[in-house]
Amino acid sequence: MNHALTYLFLLGFAASACTKDGKNITVQGRVYNPVTGEGISDCEIRLVKESLELPGGNKTVLTVYPDANGYFELNHTSISARYVGCFFDNEKYDEIGWIQDGQNIGSSLVPVKRGKFTYLDCQAVPYGTIEQHVENVNCQSPADEMQIRFKTQFDTDYLYWSPIIYGCENAVGSAKVPMGWRYYETKVIRSGVTTYVYDTVFVTESGIANVEILY
Known about the structure:
The chain is mostly beta strands and about 220 residues long.
């Protein structure tokens, strides 16, 4: 066998081994702010595999970065890579989660199939500040009761109720919260009668939103 034939044989063997032992992983999608529709580029899309190496956990196989409009494409041939994840600066963004076929499938690592094409979008929003004023403007006695719960535009239902606040409450506070609509439900029990108060506020990026819960 001459050198040319030997070289072609080795190339064919290498290609055969790659096809047998590893399959191509292709993931395409977009990272964006679902409130504004703007793409997010300052994050990382990582292909990871499970690892028993110290300190343990997952090991990054490949990292790609979205373009200026948030679009990304990840291609890799692997026999071990299993998951894809989107990683943000947690001080800058609140991750909403991965979107596949119109459904939010969570913000954790998403399994990908080798030899298959996968399309995934990832959503995140920046933070703003909310300043809240809560006051019992119709206080009747120290036995008055009030509880608050809220949800964002990305939640399907309200979150848990706050602890019961008794008496003539008058408090202010502020907090860093994700951008978007926030919906408040306040339950008031006064002289044995239960009433509900509803408030809505929109938080802008790096802005300050004010909500007054007067009951």
